[in-house]
Amino acid sequence: MANESSTLPRVTFQTPEKPEEESSHRKLGKLTVKYNRKDLQRWRDLEEWIDAQLQELYQYQEEAEAAVPEPEIDIEDLLEVPNDEQKSKLQEILHECSRPTEDFITELLSRLKGLRKIPSPQKK
């Protein structure tokens, strides 16, 4: 089979190049994006914690009611909102939950304080 794939005809598309653009197309470079690993790990840990807490809050509700969908909490959106509005935004997102959400909201807000918004990637 390996011989068959190497003998198959190949189709390539080439566009006519202008002389001044020729050098830029021929020079292929690598682009390395660097993120701060600690920030990414903290962000990931917080997302996993949120998912686990939401599953716990909504697990019994799904059995009792007609499958209320688990809400999505976007950390980036929360970090863009001023601190005093974060609590009301979370209460709005969780308003359909029949279980108490105050402890979850308080803990999430305290965890958000130590988290920074991940900046645009740094080019190396």
Automatic annotation (TrEMBL):
Single GO term (MF): protein serine/threonine phosphatase inhibitor activity
Q: Which residues form a coiled coil?
A: none
Q: Which UniProt keywords apply?
A: Phosphoprotein, Protein phosphatase inhibitor
List the InterPro entries hit by this protein, alphabetically.
CPI-17, CPI-17_sf
The cross-references to SUPFAM superfamilies, in alphabetical order and at most eight, read: Myosin phosphatase inhibitor 17kDa protein, CPI-17
Task: Quote the biased-composition stretches of kind Polar residues, using this chain's numbering.
Answer: 1-15
Q: Where is this region: Disordered?
A: 1-27
User: Does the UniProt entry include the keyword Phosphoprotein?
Assistant: yes
Family indicated by similarity: Belongs to the PP1 inhibitor family.
Please state what the protein is called: Protein phosphatase 1 regulatory subunit 14D isoform A
